[in-house]
Amino acid sequence: MTESAIRDDLADRVPRLVARTTQVPDEPDLLALLAVHNPTAWIRRGEGFVGHGEAARLEVAGPDRFAIASRWWSQLTAAAAVRDDIQEPGTGLVAFGSFAFADVPGHSTLVVPEVVVGRRAGRTWVTTVSAEPSLPSTSALGRLRATTPPCPPRGVTFADGALTGAGWSAAVAEAVRRIQAGQLDKVVLARDLLAVAKAPIDLRWPLRRLAERYPVCWTYAVRGLFGATPEMLVRLENGLVTSRVLAGTIRRSDDDAHDLALAASLARSSKDLEEHEYAVRSVAEALAPHCSSINVPESPFVLHLPNVMHLATDLAGVLKDSSTSLELAAALHPSAAVCGTPTSVALQVIGELERMDRGRYAGPVGWIDAAGNGEWGIALRCAQVDDHDPTRLRLFAGCGIVADSIPEAELAEAQAKLVPIRDALSP
Ligand SMILES: C=C(O[C@@H]1C=C(C(=O)O)C=C[C@H]1O)C(=O)O
User: Fold this and answer.
1) DSSP letters along 126-160, please?
2) Rounded CA gap, 168 and 418, in Å?
């Protein structure tokens, strides 16, 4: 679809919203304000957002999903009447999004909640959004506190998804064969697990667990996709672009001293450094056209999470064009951290060997404000609630495969990456 066709198509679908942002007494526990039904969340170290309800929503699919969503957001913000007492990144109108990994199949979404509570640097605000003049925000905050505590999940059982462990290891072996034959350099292969619960999951439970146990990660929930990701695809704040690239993983032991030795071996592992280099290069190359300068550290650091350690690189640049955070995310997706190198061959191999639809797993997830500021993580370490049956979920994890990957070790790594979300689904 051409840009102008997209514009014409959207013009009459964009609601005229009225939004009001006011500062409220500081609310250090955002998690206590999570919605009981279909919560929206983006939280790290007690800061971020929770959203309730939907004042507007876009559902979109296909290769133009990012362009259509960007156009919708710029039209919606242009048409809105906003009174914003704070005027900082994340105040005023904010949309939360989650995008499909693949062009086809998969659905992507942008949601503008009716009420957003935001918190940053010890300051809390409430934004109310409606098609009518909104209620004063402070009264909205009182109404958000749930009257019931989160319900622990009941009787969750896990089963293989598209492939058994052995079947997935065989897919990894086939990927290694193709890499060694020179068809591609790196591919990220993922697998899914199915979880079935005795009753619909109260997402407030796993979200609090994830946020408390993985404070270094961004805990998110957008239309039934939830998790805690350690990887920041791109953040844009007042012209400063940053990205945290991860690739290269080692499982943790229960012994701190041994973990230090493992971290040192990860930092020297040529297999992991190679895998990491592909991922960093893909992000730096995609950001280059949009930034006047980019700082790319020469070597990665080791990011310690409770279950695994990753090689990590933080990139920073200065935006030189008018791209929004969502447009930058679109330019970066799919990075070699979740797809491979070269991208087109890796996508083909993923489609052929994984035997599943990734849905919104490994796609950008995050938020954008009216000025284009925002944060887009990669939807990793997550579960997707079934649209038709809230007792069923799919869990995902993947691993970067390079020439000397060992299938059994990759399977063990994928299991380790599933630990946070599996634990969050236990009582
Ligand atoms: C694909 C995932 O993780 C990605 C792959 C990594 C790796 O292979 O070392 C590390 C972090 C992520 O970029 C996942 O968690 O599902």
Assistant:
1) EEEEESSPPPPHHHHHHHHS-SSPPPPP-S-EEEE
2) 15
Structure confidence at residue 8 (pLDDT):
52
The SS3 of residue 57 is: strand
Which is nearest to 349 in space by CA: 170, 188, 168, 167? 188
- Asked if 186 is an active-site residue, the reply is yes
* ipTM for the whole complex: 0.99
- Taking CB atoms and a 6 Å cutoff, what residues make up the pocket around ligand 1? 188, 190, 231, 246-249, 310, 337-338, 380-381, 397-400, 417
- 237 catalytic, yes or no? no
User: Residue 374: beta bridge partners?
Assistant: 236, 368
**How many angstroms separate the alpha carbon of residue 47 from the centre of ligand 1?**
24
Q: Which of 47, 132, 174, 186 is catalytic?
A: 186
Record the pTM: 0.96
Q: Which domain holds residue 34?
A: 3-424
**Cross-strand bridge partners of residue 229:** 218
If one counts every other C-beta atom within 10 angstroms of the C-beta of residue 411, the result is 17
Residue pair 133/46 in contact (Cβ under 8 Å)? The answer is no
- Asked if 334 contacts 357 with a C-beta cutoff of 8 angstroms, the reply is no
Dist. CA 154 → ligand 1 center (Å): 29
What is the reported pLDDT for 368? 99
CATH number, domain with residue 224: 3.60.120.10
Residue nearest to atom 6 of ligand 1 (CA): 247
Quote the number of domains for the chain. 1
